[in-house]
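Re: the pair you flagged

First of the two:
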Amino acid sequence: MRDIKENTSVLYENDEFQQFTEEALRPGGLELTRKALAIADFPVGSHLLDIGCGCGITVEFLAEEYGMEAWGIDISEELIAKAKARNKSLRVQVGDVYNLPYGSSSMDGVVMECVFTLFDNKPLALEQIRRVLKPGGQLIITDLYIRDNAQAFTQLPLVTCLNGITSQDVVCQEVSSAGFRLKEWHDETSVYKGFLAGLIMNYGSMSAFWESLVGSCEKACTVQQNIKKVKIGYYLSVWEKE
């Protein structure tokens, strides 16, 4: 896990990127979270876990806006420290999805916003998520996916949520085979396009954005070329534990 942590920190612990995303660190921000919660329809007081909670924005949102009992976990010590510095009452901690420090059948719901594609071992991650969910518990996933020409995509010289992107069929197979039933799937590509437009306005160009992360024009060009080979979209899905 250390290599993943060190590589992802290049993007998610980047101060300029955090400022641009208002510390939400993902397309759609809390508006997409709100849409997901409307689908899941958790009762007030439900126990919810945000995996890859980052700066704790969603955890705080769940507790303060929806009256949920919310917890968060993230592999980044820096992001967890920022979350606690902003709000000492947040129940967030350093840890990873492969060894969740929560009891079996302890959560009514799990939220994963733009982190599923980062998992090296998705079956183990989903096994842990299923373990902590109560019977009938719900899993919310928002993330990137490849809408067309998936076979043309190759790995990038930087770990971001782009690296693990696959097609909708593959995502559905991965999650359903782990014991989850798909409740709803929504294409949210317009949110992703708006996010990209914001990056261009903030950095001047996508090339400048990638170069600020990978440190060289050559690597930035590699990223750009690989991304252009495929059609990337964004989705919101809600699953129920079977």
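Second of the two:
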Amino acid sequence: MSESGRVTARARTDNSPHEWNAQTTRVSPAKSYLRKVLAITWKDVISELRTREIFSAMFVFALLCVFIFQFAFDLQAENTRVLVPGVLWVTIVFSGVLGLNRSFVLEADKGCLDGLLLAPVDRSAIYFGKMLGNLIFMSVVELIILPLFMILFNLPLWHPGILVVIFLGTLGFSAVGTLFSAMAVNTRTREIMLPILLFPVILPVLIAGVRMTGGFLDGTALAEMQNWARLLVGFDIIFLAIALMTFDYVVEE
């Protein structure tokens, strides 16, 4: 073999481990997208653990709602199952609005929102990261207030069907609320604007959640509530798709 051929073969042999490492460390687009979503969510979680602004406001408001409704209504055994589903969902919705109001406020007030939008990530990853953070905060509050509801109202709210309904309702609420929170963050009256935009849209989730929660408490079969279940699932799918398609235009404005 000639000297030039030996040099070429040696160069190929020396470079092959580096090429192999480059191929093995190459991340698929799906994993890269997921990492970006989780990074944004993790940023919000860490920020909340330091400040405790969102969770504190949501938890205190939810706690006040529970005790106010407890003493406002003379809840006897015969009317508890009728009123508690509505009380539960009103508590979830109003405490959730407090958390959604703060979703983009920290970035906007500190001037970091433009930097976040200029980051080399897809805008949908920002939306999903923010939505997942809101979903986590609301779920933590719900996990705390549900046992409190069970103690005060003596009802089996730790039912698998009720837990699934609450999760689906919270998912739809977070999907719409995160989009509207990004829309209202740059307005002067953002604390008022968000509920005005949000409440009419989430009305189907609220109605379906109340009806299905009451149905599970009464022992109604799931087959009899399938229309409400379809409404809840359909709402989540439709508004997740709408938010995914419109979030880029919302934050640009």
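Residues 22 and 35 are 19 Å apart (CA to CA).

-B.
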